[in-house]
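Render this sequence as a predicted structure.
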Amino acid sequence: MEQTPTAAPLSGLERSTLRELLVHGPKSRAEIARELGMSRASLTRVTRTLIEQGLVAEGPLELRGATGRPSEVLRIRPEGRRFLGVKLTGERLFAVVTDLAAQALAEYDEPLASRSVEDAVAQIAGVYERLAAEHPGIAAVGIGLAGDVVAKGDRQTVLQSPFLGWGEVPLADLVGELVGVPVATENDVRALTAAEHWFGVGAGYESMVLVTVGAGVGVGVVVDGKVVTGASGRAGNVEHLPVDPGGPRCERGHRGCVAAYLPNAAIVAALRTPGLDYANVLELARGGDPAARQAFRDAGHALGVLSGMLANTLDPEKIVITGDGIAVTELARDEIDAAIAMLRGPDEAPVALDIQPFEFAEWARAGAVLAIRDHLRF
């Protein structure tokens, strides 16, 4: 495939200026210089480069304060770049093409051909080729998937992905060789956390926690405006936090941990009825079935313990909860709130929970945000 031409790498000040406009919206030159501590000469050079590369445009004059003269504002040119985001599950591939402002231009999904690395790499390349034909000029690709993803030197490696059965896979390199543009990979929860922090419900916050519930339990953390990765790429691995030492065992043999109560499979297992799946148990719970309701109450208690622990440990401005198991917040909100209250001091402020609907397309969009951040070296 033909490689998309790439512009010269941006300097640190150019990246900082672009990030300021991406995250906080249009600003005057004076506001940018004040926010970033830049001289007028430096800002002139920076904005000239960003305009020449098609990343930034000059807007109309605006009155930016209660007094003073109107100022010319700078804004992002969303059409200046296009990016492809991919989310892999154990069964499907979801893809989104976005502009520089992470607005979706196209969405696509299809069944995963197989879980083999070779087939998945070829399928991602095929989706890239299909969407690039409809939206030419894709500058970079970002791929999110469940598992541990770390950087080893200049290589990003999927250390393990349980739903795909992968280990030590240089996915970014393999896909990059076929598509001819830069490719980045990341744990899907961290990618979603970064996307929500820049362009979603966490925009403007310096600290937040994102909890995903569903096939598994994932936690993404933002501290001081940065997504926490950890020394080995495993930050946020808290699904085996103890909840009840006398509770059921999880699949790893831990007794009474979050993973023994909260994932969809644990809720199904609690009913001990062959042939049921999560959709069946959810329907039973909404219909008032006592056993199904209790399974969700236990899951809600576990989610509350996890949320309270995260609130006490990290003191975030908000905790976002999402995922395909989000029904637990509908069926067991009292148990969630009670468990949080149990762990919080009587004089502490309430934990700000932000319950967000779940869509796989948003996870694919998170892959595009990963591509944006990697392409611009954020």
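Summary. The first helix runs from residue 12 to 24. The chain is about 40% helix and 25% strand.
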